Amino acid sequence: MKSDSMSQVLVVDDEARMRELCVEVLSMSGYTANAVSSGEKAVELVAQGKFAVVLLDIRMPGLSGIEALKTMKAVRPDVGVIMITGFGSIESSVDAMRYGAYDYILKPFRLEELSIRVRRCMEERESRTKMKALATQVNSLLLGTISALVKSVEAKHLYTRGHSERVSRYALEIATYYPFPDEQKRETIRRAVVLSGLLHDIGKIALPDSVLDSPDKLSDKQWKMMKRHPITGSKILAGINPLKAAIPGILYHHCHFNNPGGSNSYPRGRSGEHIPVLARIISVADTFDALTSTRAYRKAVSKYDAAEVIEHEAGHQFDPEAVTAFCHAFEVCFAVWRIGRD
Ligand SMILES: [Fe+2]
Ligand SMILES: [Fe+2]
Q1: Exposure check for the chain: N or C terminus, fewer CB within 10 A?
Q2: pLDDT tens digits for range 301-318
Q3: Nearest bound ligand to CA 197?
Q4: 163 CA to middle of ligand 2, Å?
């Protein structure tokens, strides 16, 4: 049995005899076991990351087992929790599974049963950690491949070189300042925005060079083709599971916040809060990069002029909250812009 902190088990029970018994059995099975008598103390210890598995009594004075479970899972989602329950609280144990408990064990239980459940919980937790590490590896590999693909596509066109990477980085900064309702939502969007920014124009892969590099105003036919790139991009990615979170940003990054019928707002029909926040953020980032980059048909404007245009469009083309977030992130965005050109 491993003796590192991750083989540690915490027993939480208000009955002293039960605590002693559990610690003894677990120690005999090779675990490092500690015990506390209250949910409050248990939450404090779990928050410090010292325990892999917690045996948690449901009925305790003060913080109940269920309340303690919820807090533990919020601060340490990876901790394995097994509820200890009597006949009178089986329903609460089933509830506990919904809040993230791994298992529950019914009092009175056979002592060898306790070790078996803890071992299973440890094994499940370990395999989850391995899967997570593997997923992280696969994701970074995927991100590297996508980055290389996007760069090779953009490199063919002088005027868009580096565009998607910069948009991705600006968008990440904007997401940092955007007023999300909670930090969990911010993290979800921050993760998605990196991918979505990198891939937002991937649909342009299907456009001919004559459209992408046109020095003149696009003809009606060319403009129609150009306006299809968000749909084409989202279709390309629809079958790739790890990239699905990026699709809303790709599909709606040209939707105007308060002008859904305008000819520059596409695809049609979405406005305001109905445009996914991911797309509202990318839209600002995309415009900042487009304005501060020279294109075949016009010269770049200064960062201040670009910011002024964006501020002027708050509540019109752009989500005003995304514009405020952009203003907070402006200096960082500009630093990113400069690095890209040095
Ligand atoms: Fe685009
Ligand atoms: Fe773009």
Answers
A1: C
A2: 998 999 999 999 999 999
A3: 2
A4: 7
